[in-house]
C-alpha cells in the first residue's frame, strides 16, 4: 500500500488554507508550484551531492568533518555516525554534508567544488530566500485564521531569515511583540500563553544594516514608520517596538524602487512580496555578522563551538548501496515475503519547524501510520518530489493540530539484484541488494533564542542541542 500525499500549490495558496488543510492528516504534503525553479534548485543540489559523495576522499572526510566548524552541526558526517533512532541501538548507514545557515562557513565552503557551491548559492537564493519565506507566510496566515494568531506572529518572527542574514545578532534583532495578552486558541481567554520569545533590548550603536536591492522583503515589527527618502538617497523604514521604543539599529534601508508603494506594513508578522518578478533578483548586502562568527576561522576548539544563531540546515544525504552480503536472508524476496526491512534512516520525527525534502528516483521514505509503516507514493509524474513535512516545533506550536509524524527511510531492493544476484557479482563492490540513494533536506528551525518548550522555558537552541546529542552519540 502506498500513501498519496496531498498536493499543495504554494504559489496559488495565498491564504495558506490548502497547506494548512493538507497538513491536518499526517503533517506531510507534496509542494508544487507553477514555477519549476524550486525543484530545479533542489535537483541541482542533488546532482552536486552525487558528484560530491562519489569523489570524496578519506582526506576530505577528515578535513570536512562535523565538529571542526563554527556552527557545531556543520560539516561532513560519516556512515554510521548518526542514529536518527538511537533507541533502536542502530546507527544509520548513510553519510551527509551539513550546511548551517546561522554562522559563516567560508572555510568549509572553501574546500568544496565550484559546482556544489554554485548549486548551493542558487538554492539559497531561490529556496531559502523565496520559498521558505513564502511557506512561513502561508502558514502564519493560516495559523492566524485558525485562532493561533499570537503563535502565528511569533512563528513568522522566529523565521525572520532576512534579519539574520542582515547580521542582526540575537541581541540586536527586532523586538518581539508583547505576548502577555495572548491566549491560546482553544482557550476562552482565561489562560494566557507564556511569551514564546524573549524580548531584547536594542543597542543604538549596533549599526546592523541590510541594504536590500529589489526583491521580497520581510519586515517584522509591530509598527513601522517610513521616513521619506532624501533626494537621490535611500529611504529608511524605522522599526518601532510594541513598547514604543524606536530602534535605530534596526533600520532597514530599502533602495528604490523596492519601496514604491508596497511596504506599508502595519502590524507584526506581515511578510510582503514587493513584486513577484522583482523578488527573483533579491540581492542582500549582508556584511555584518557578529565578529566571532564573521571571522569564520577554524580556531581553537572553544572558539569553534561558538553557537550559531539559526540552526536551519541544508543536508546533502547519501545512502550507499547495501551489499547483498549484509542482508539477512529473510529480507530478500518480494515485499510479501520480506519479514524485515533494511533501515537506512531510523524512525524519527524532525526536530525543527518544517522540512523540505527532495528524494532521488529511488524513493524509500515511509511514514508510521498507527502501528504500520507505509510507503509514500513517489511518482515524479504526479508531483515533482518536493515533500513538506511538519517538525516537532510546528506540532508543539499548533498544540498537535499539525502532527510531526514519525518517518524513516528503507532500502529499496534493486530489481536486478533481487532477480539475479549472481550476474551482479562482477560489479565493483560486489552484488548489491539496493541501489544507492541521494536526497536533499532543508531543515527549517526557529531562531535560536525562540522559546519552543513553554513549560520549561527552553529555547530552540537548547532543545535542538539535546536532540543532536542523542543523534550523534556514535561519534
Ligand atoms: O533522506 C530522506 O529521504 C529522509 C531523511 C530524513 O527524514 C531526515 O534526515 O530527517
Ligand atoms: Fe526526517
UniProtKB/TrEMBL annotation:
InterPro entries given in the database record: DIOX_N, IPNS-like_FE2OG_OXY, IPNS-like_sf, Iron_ascorbate_oxido_reductase, Oxoglu/Fe-dep_dioxygenase_dom
GO molecular function: metal ion binding; oxidoreductase activity
PROSITE patterns linked: FE2OG_OXY
Keyword terms, alphabetized: Iron, Metal-binding, Oxidoreductase
Residue span(s) of domain Fe2OG dioxygenase: 310-446
Family assignment from sequence similarity: Belongs to the iron/ascorbate-dependent oxidoreductase family.
Organism: Cyanidioschyzon merolae (strain NIES-3377 / 10D) (Unicellular red alga)
Top-rank lineage group of the source organism: Eukaryota
Name this protein carries in UniProt: Fe2OG dioxygenase domain-containing protein
